[in-house]
Amino acid sequence: MTKKYWIEETDFYITNVCNLTCSHCITYNDRKFKGYSKWEDYRQIYEDWSKILDVDMMVIIGGEPFSHPELLTWARGIRGFWPDVQSFAVCTNGTYLHLPENKKIARELIDLGLWIDISVHDPAHYEDIKFHIEDIMSIYDYETIPIQTTTLGRSFLDDGYEYRINGKKIGELNKRWRLHTSSMKMEKDGMIYMHTSDAETAHQNCSAYRCHYFNKGKLYKCHLVAVGEDLVQQFNIDPDSKKMLTDYRACTPYDEPEFIEQFTKTLRSTIPQCTLCPEKRQPANIFPLQLKKK
Q1: In whole angstroms, what is the distance from residue 113 CA to residue 80 CA?
Q2: Where do the structural domains in the chain lie, given as residue ranges?
């Protein structure tokens, strides 16, 4: 059944928590960013979204999703509400895949029709993570396909591997040890200062312009505004940037139909908050990485 609204792709952001310290993290998860979303708190909102919104591609993201105690609950819930979505992934840094309970979860995710999208952020982690993802895959009759991500215009990635069953992707392993510069321009005296770019230029050069976010039941244009509410509550953000983040209006399934229609149709358009990101994004090495102290 055709639904009233459509977007091509959305990420379900479920946790601020990450165990790595990647500089230039676009959602500031390299910091001691706290909090994760419980499925039951937002289940009804997502069910209501699913009645009116079609999505082609979905990703569960963080933070680090495998740090979330309800990852499988989220995956089952989202899959139940959008059963026909063909491309559904969990994006992980792979560093928790050695744990037996997470290997079990990863296989259950694959059996639900999801694929495991692994971005390795440090060359020192690569062989260990590759061993564990292939151990997870070992119960399946899978094939390994070399991929050249540089040919796709993804300049922050090196070549990797795709894992498939009967032609269907069940995993992807990327050497993502470069990230583009983030919205943080500098940090001084404990305050984070964001950019004051030309919004149109920043949007034109945004590497994540297609990545729209669900967070706590609300739909956001991008990663930065999606974490904006938690960001200004937990960190010291410069006053101008803080105001821009708090001024942003996300979309809910309970908004006026005219607002939802306009919002979903213009998700790839420039917004005032684009000024907070750099006009030019350059990939920069982020390794060697340190694990966060507990």
Answers
A1: 11
A2: 5-279
